[in-house]
Each structure stands twice: as C-alpha cells, then as structure tokens.
From TrEMBL:
This is Alkaline phosphatase D family protein. Residues 1-89 form the DUF7800 domain. PANTHER family: METALLOPHOSPHATASE BINDING DOMAIN PROTEIN, PHOD-LIKE PHOSPHATASE METALLOPHOSPHATASE DOMAIN-CONTAINING PROTEIN. Residues 344-355 have a biased composition (Low complexity). It comes from Streptomyces xiangluensis. Residues 138-249 form the PhoD-like phosphatase metallophosphatase domain. Residues 344-415 are annotated as: Disordered. Pfam families: DUF7800, PhoD.
Length: 625
C-alpha cells in the first residue's frame, strides 16, 4: 500500500483550479478529493527512487473554501489519523473587492523536534500555523511567498549530520554538507515534516524561489568563485542535485496547471518509468547554459502582480560586464511589468496575456545585442555550449527541450490581461536597497574586483567579496541602476500602480526603505518601497545587529562615501532612507492589498511567559490609502 511520505503542499490556486504536491512511498495514483465535489488525480513520477505527484484540482467555485483529502490508490492518507489540526482547505479566490494578503519572508532552518530546545527561538511559520489552527476565523494569507533559503545544503542540523555520518564518511568532502539528491530529500523531510509547517503548507498556497543556501553560500558570487568551485571534485554532483531537487520540490508548484500541461520537461519526466536521467540532463544544461532555462515567473492575484526573479542562476559574472540579471532576463522582467498597460503591452508583449512565463528557454540572442558575443553567464558554459545557444531561435527553448517553442500561459487572467494592475510586487531574494554603508562598500568592492585600482587591489577585493558576502544588487551597479530606471518607468503615468514593492530577505533582519529620485528626474507616481523580512527561523548574530545599525547611521553613510571615492564609484541615480526598522527576530511581513490601498504588518515569533510561543505584531502601517 502506498504511504504519504511528504506533503501535501497546496501550491497554485486561482478561482477555479489548484495544484497539490505530494511524495508517495511507491508508484501510485494520487488523488485530491474536495468536499464540494471538486478534485483531480494523476500518476506519480519517479526521480532517484522517490515518487512525486503534482495533482491538478479543477471544479473549484470562486469565493468559496472547501476541505480536501488526499488519496493514494484509493486509500485516504490525508488528513492524518488523529490529527490535532483543522481540515486542510482550498480557498478559491474571487478577487472582486476582497483584499489580497501576501505573507513573506526567507531564511528558515528546520525547527528541532518538540522535545529539544530551539537555539534560535520560535519559528515564525510554526507560530503562524498555531495562530490559524487555533482560530479558524483568523485572518489568513492568500499566499505565502518564500524568498529563498528554504533549505540549507551547507549548514545541516545535528540530526542530519548523524544521518549523513551513517551514510558516508564525513571526513571526505563535502563533509557535513549535502552531497547528492538523496541527501537533499533529507533536508526537505526535516523542514516540511514539522507538524505545524506541514499543516500550514497544506492549506495556504505558496510561491518559492531559491537563494544561495539552497545550493551553497555565495552561490555564483563571481567568475573566480565559480572556477574554484568547478575545480572541486564534489561540486558538480552538488549543483545538479540542488537544481533537480529544487525543480521537484519547489519550482513545479510555482506553475499553473495549464503551464504544466504544456511543459515538455514535465511531460518527458512523467512519460518514462524513471525520470532521473531526463531531469539530470536538464540540470546539466541549466548549469552549462543558464539561458536554456528561466526560473523567474509571474503570478497575478486579481489586480496584484507578483514577479519572482532569479538573482542567482541568471547572473553575468564577467568582471567587465557583471549583471545581476543577464540582458534577456532583464528584458523578460521589463516585458512582464509592462504587459497589460495599453500601448506599452503591445510594444513589449504583443498584447499576449503572459500571466506566467517560467522555466522557459531564452536564447543568448535574446540576452545579447545582435552580433555581440554571448555574455559570460553564471554557468560560464563551454564555448561549444555557448555556440549551440547562439544558434537557437530568439524565443529559445522550454524547461525540458532547449530550442523548442516558448512555453506561455494565461493563468486564467485573459479577461484582465490588458488592464493595469493596482500593485506590483517584485520578489528578489536579495534586497535592492541596503544600508548606505553596505551599498557603497559593495559598489567599491565591485570596482576593485574589476581592476580599477590595479591587480593587487583586485585580488584583495575578490577575497573580501567572498568573506563579507558582498554580492547584493549594489555589487552589480549597472543592474541596480537598471532596476531603478524600470521601477520609475512602470511607476509613472496614468496607468501607474499605487505601489511598487520590492520584497526581499537574506540579511537576517527586517526593515523598510523608501527611495527618492533627484530633482528634475522623472520620479514615479507610485509609492516605491523596499520591504525586507528575514529570517523566518535562523540565528541573528550580534555582529549583524551592530553592523546594520551602524550601516544606516550618518557616520556609516559618510564612511561609505569614502569607500566609493577610493573606487571611483559614482553616486547612485537615486537616494533612499530607512523608514522602518531595523527589526531583529524570527518574523514575517504581511501585505494587505485592497483596491489601491495597501497596509503592511510585521509579526515576530515570541516566547510566552507561561511557555509556548505566538506571533506578536510589532508594527502595522498604511502604505497607500
């Protein structure tokens, strides 16, 4: 009999359909059956001896909630027998005049077992689950946006280290870090079998994107770093396993049912009794030629647009032309923010309702000016692989068949595809706006590494970049400026949204920053905000607290300008100020968006005097009336 090994995770939901992700113990038919008659079923697919299914659910009624159960070969496996939690629900949104609530955060170590002391304090996801489970009428998120470091491949728990030690000799590299796909599955079991988190993810839809620790700290920080990693004997298996496990556990659920139905990689994996080799070939191509895959994607929630962008695998690492987003990736981002805005849409997207474009190919021609050589990408593929990419048509390939037709989906929003949205959310694991000292130090470091002060300073800069994690948007000055320009463009004019919010994590604290454009520049009409929230559950060293407090200070700002002067770094095209925080703790931010109004709430997980933990609201503010 098939057993439920992991899940269910409620991933995509719209007014009439949903997807539910599960892992089973053996090949079987996975079925989701809803109390109101909606449902769906599919056969599992196999990767590295594990059996997964992403079950498409149809027949949902907009504006209603329905309980569901999961069956494997006809046997009910969810809810678990004797579960203390309420039934898992699918809420099909109507989006008429109802608010859209977006909870977000990043950086989550798996919580230890209930009988062990938690060294980093209560988990924000655990406490959110407890709040919702204890009060079924409580305000609940419409989507949970997880902005990276959902698992830590390079910082494993004591329990996982014991499991690894029973499997192999930890004296051999990579030591107590994960080495292959099977070891990645252990991380997901540890994280998602937490009872509270398991129930929460079964009833609140989620969007996910990776950051560095999903693979390794400082992933793709520089061309020199990548060359050093590729010289190690264990790196290739680690990277391919990381990309494969991310595709299975996180990426697939980001996509709507119709996008999945048209995806050739998904079809190929499901068409064979064992999809391991198919998926591994895809991961190897993604490593050799990042332009063969797009991990970024778009989701529309009524009149709220969310763009989740890949700031790790899509980088250009050539020191003379570094970019957080390769040209084709930035062009995709611009197309998505402008699509649906009258003449702008016709000029950038052909008026097509591209509500989701994800894991689809984009050739080097699409990322490079005609006749120019392809950029040195994060993967720094071989000349042969670059040549093959340059020979592809401009639309590129899909996630499974490089060179095939582009995969696009309307995600059920064709009726509103050409109307403006009220709020734009840009999800990037790495903050765009940082404390001024950190921003200037990263820009200075980038100048050193580029050779502005000579070879000795360049060597010093590369060493410092790795030691101090100097790799945010400010370490890619041209990309920082380009994002500022794009935000000003999309935030201006009669069709401008009320807010443009950049959602980020990574830096183990929370803050709000607001940019301003110089007098005489074209400033946006929309309110623009950097909203940073991290960690969900992780350590917060005193050095981080002191460093970021100082980074926002006037003295820190003056010191940053001295760094910038030494590197010959010009002032950025915008200024910004911190308008909230810094806040330290395990925490989540929640945006409530209704019409053109927006409110922000920050909740922290706090230990109660009598024991236990709960979410406490630290701040709540109006962003747009």
């Amino acid at each position: 009999m098939a057993r439920l090994r992991l899940g269910p995770l409620l991933r995509y939901v719209d007014g009439s359909s949903a997807t539910v992700w599960v892992e089973a113990s053996r090949p079987c038919t996975a079925e989701v059956r809803c109390a109101d008659g909606a449902g769906g079923e599919t056969r599992t697919f196999q990767i590295a001896g594990h059996h997964y299914a992403l079950v498409p659910v149809t027949g949902l009624i907009p504006g209603t909630s329905t309980a569901y159960e999961v069956r494997l070969d006809g046997t009910t496996v969810w809810p678990l027998p004797g579960s203390p939690f309420p039934p898992s629900l699918i809420h099909a949104p109507a989006y008429d005049h109802a608010p859209v609530r977006v909870a977000f955060g990043s950086c989550r170590w798996a919580a230890p077992p209930a009988d062990e002391k938690d060294p980093v304090g209560p988990d924000a996801l655990d406490t959110l689950a407890a709040r919702l489970a204890s009060d079924p009428g409580a305000e609940r998120p419409d989507v949970l946006v997880l902005l990276g470091d959902q698992v830590y491949a390079d910082e494993t728990s004591n329990a996982t280290r014991r499991w690894l030690a029973a499997r192999r000799d930890l004296k051999d590299p990579p030591g107590n870090e994960v080495a292959d796909y099977e070891e990645y599955t252990r991380l997901y079991y540890e994280s998602w079998l937490d009872p509270e988190v398991r129930w929460l993810l079964s009833t609140v839809p989620s969007c996910m994107i990776f950051d560095d620790h999903d693979v390794i700290d400082d992933w793709n920080t520089s061309a020199a770093w990548l060359a050093d990693m590729r010289a190690t004997p264990w790196w290739r298996e680690r990277l391919l396993s990381g990309l494969m496990s991310y595709w299975v556990h996180q990426h697939l659920g980001n996509l709507p049912p119709e996008r999945l139905a048209a995806d050739p990689l998904y079809a190929a994996v499901r068409a064979t009794p064992d999809g391991t080799d198919v998926l591994r070939t895809f991961a190897a191509e993604a490593d050799a030629n990042p332009t063969s895959v797009r991990w970024s994607y778009r989701r529309d929630f009524g009149r709220v647009r969310l763009l989740m962008i890949d700031t790790r695998a899509a980088r250009v690492l050539d020191e003379t032309d570094r970019a957080m987003l390769a040209p084709g990736e930035h062009a995709w981002l611009r197309e998505q923010v402008l699509e649906g805005r009258g003449a702008d849409a016709a000029g950038t997207a052909g008026g097509r309702p591209d509500a989701v474009v994800a894991a689809s190919g984009a050739s080097d021609e699409a990322r490079t000016a005609p006749g120019a050589p392809p950029p040195v990408s994060a993967a720094q593929g071989s000349p042969d692989s670059m040549a093959k990419a340059s020979a592809r048509p401009a639309d590129g390939g899909t996630s499974g068949e490089p060179g095939g037709p582009p995969a696009r989906s309307a995600e059920g929003h064709a009726a509103t595809a050409r109307t403006p949205y009220d709020h734009l959310l840009i999800g990037t694991s790495l903050p765009w706006l940082l404390p001024h000292l950190v921003h200037d130090a990263e820009a200075w470091n980038a100048a050193l590494c580029r050779g502005e002060r000579g070879p000795r300073w360049a060597r010093f800069g590369e060493d410092l970049r790795r030691r101090a994690d100097l790799e945010h948007w400010s370490a890619f000055p041209a990309s920082f400026d380009a994002l500022a320009s794009l935000i000003a463009e999309v935030g201006s004019g009669p069709e401008a949204p009320a807010t443009v919010c950049v959602l980020s994590g990574d830096v183990h604290h929370a803050y709000i920053a607001e940019p301003s454009w110089p007098q005489g520049a074209s400033a946006p009409d929309a309110r623009v905000l950097q909203l940073t929230c991290s960690p969900v559950h992780n350590s917060i060293p005193m050095s981080i607290k002191l460093g970021f407090h100082f980074g926002w200070s006037r003295v820190g700002r003056a010191l940053g300008r001295r760094f910038a002067g030494h590197g010959g770094v010009p002032r950025p095209p915008i200024d910004w100020r911190r308008t909230g925080g810094p806040w330290f703790g395990n925490q989540l931010m929640t945006l409530t968006l209704r019409g053109r109004s927006a409110r922000l709430r920050l909740d922290q997980a706090r230990v109660e005097k009598g024991g236990g933990a709960r979410l406490r609201t630290v701040v709540e503010s109006e962003l747009a009336p």
